[in-house]
Design brief:
By secondary structure, the chain is of the alpha+beta class. Helix content is 23%, strand content 52%. The protein contains 1 helix and 8 strands.
């Protein structure tokens, strides 16, 4: 009797553990999507656009690297052709420019694009669909 009860409890615990794991894995697969694209700019800098979609929001992160320290950049972020943000950023002491913005997820696939132009005329462009 004790052996049967122990075996039954072990089987039930294993079943619950598997069901819990499957539910967690499914929830993450349904909601978290990440995309990233990196591309060289026109004069040596490097830009990347990372998107992370989570439920009804998209976290957009723009990074420009290898810029001259102190260089001023005009950065434009657009979603599905609509400009979401226009800003001016200055490259930090490591030559990096960063911009993060939370976007509302639109119906269907979203096209997020960044265009950045330095004070010297260097142009960076990158587009990601999610």
């Amino acid at each position: 009797m004790i052996i049967k009860t122990t075996a039954l409890l072990a089987t039930a615990a294993l079943g619950l553990g598997t069901a819990g794991f499957l539910a967690t894995g499914t929830a993450q697969a349904d909601w978290d999507i990440e995309r990233e694209r990196s591309k060289g700019c026109s004069a040596g800098a490097w830009t990347s656009l990372s998107l992370e979609k989570n439920r009804r929001t998209i976290e957009a992160d723009v990074d420009i690297e290898r810029s001259p320290v102190g260089q001023t950049w005009r950065v434009r972020l657009a979603q599905n052709g609509t400009v979401i943000e226009r800003t001016t950023r200055v490259a930090d002491r490591e030559g990096d420019v960063e911009l993060s913005r939370r976007l509302t997820d639109q119906p269907g696939r979203d096209k997020v694009a960044v265009r950045a132009v330095s004070a010297t005329g260097e142009v960076c462009r990158v587009t990601v669909r999610i």
